[in-house]
From TrEMBL:
<dbReference type="InterPro" id="IPR001789">
    <property type="entry name" value="Sig_transdc_resp-reg_receiver"/>
</dbReference>
<keyword id="KW-0597">Phosphoprotein</keyword>
<keyword id="KW-0472">Membrane</keyword>
<dbReference type="InterPro" id="IPR050595">
    <property type="entry name" value="Bact_response_regulator"/>
</dbReference>
<feature type="modified residue" description="4-aspartylphosphate">
    <location>
        <position position="53"/>
    </location>
</feature>
<dbReference type="GO" id="GO:0000160">
    <property type="term" value="P:phosphorelay signal transduction system"/>
</dbReference>
<keyword id="KW-1133">Transmembrane helix</keyword>
<feature type="domain" description="Response regulatory">
    <location>
        <begin position="3"/>
        <end position="128"/>
    </location>
</feature>
<protein>
    <submittedName>
        <fullName>Response regulator</fullName>
    </submittedName>
</protein>
<dbReference type="InterPro" id="IPR011006">
    <property type="entry name" value="CheY-like_superfamily"/>
</dbReference>
<dbReference type="Pfam" id="PF00072">
    <property type="entry name" value="Response_reg"/>
</dbReference>
<keyword id="KW-0812">Transmembrane</keyword>
<feature type="transmembrane region" description="Helical">
    <location>
        <begin position="35"/>
        <end position="56"/>
    </location>
</feature>
Length: 135
């Protein structure tokens, strides 16, 4: 059973997404908002995929508040985590947001919250885990 890291600052969203991933997807979900812990856990090799909210209110690193885009950039810069699949989660769904966020973060996918189609959500996660990331 693969372990996914969920970086989400809204407790309700975290609970709902965790339940979907665990009950319907069969995954183990670890939830974290602390950036140093996120980087460490991802570098350990214990995480199969990161689900990363773009707007984070409580995530700081080296005295600076970071959003999901910046955390994704840190993960991509580290050779130990550069190939880790990253899925951005966001309520930002304006025209152009998807392309802008994916380009800036180098994430693999972008999902608009709230997640409505659970089957498509889980299928995307399975596909990203199965396919090696092309850089």
């Amino acid at each position: 059973m693969a372990t996914l890291l969920l970086v989400e600052d809204d407790p309700t969203n975290a609970r709902v997404l965790s339940r979907i991933l665990e009950k319907r997807g069969g995954y183990t979900v670890q939830h974290c908002e602390d950036v140093a812990t996120i980087l460490s856990v991802c570098a350990s090799g214990a995480i199969a995929l990161v689900l990363l909210d773009i707007s984070l209110a409580h995530s700081t690193y080296q005295g600076r508040q970071l959003n999901g885009i910046e955390i994704a950039q840190l993960l991509r810069q580290n050779p130990q985590t550069a190939q880790l699949p990253i899925v951005l989660l966001t309520a930002h769904a304006m025209i152009g947001d998807r392309d802008q966020f994916l380009q800036a973060s180098q994430a693999d996918a972008y999902i608009v919250k709230p997640v409505i189609d659970y089957d498509a959500f889980l299928q995307l996660i399975q596909q990203l885990q199965a396919a090696p990331r092309s850089v």
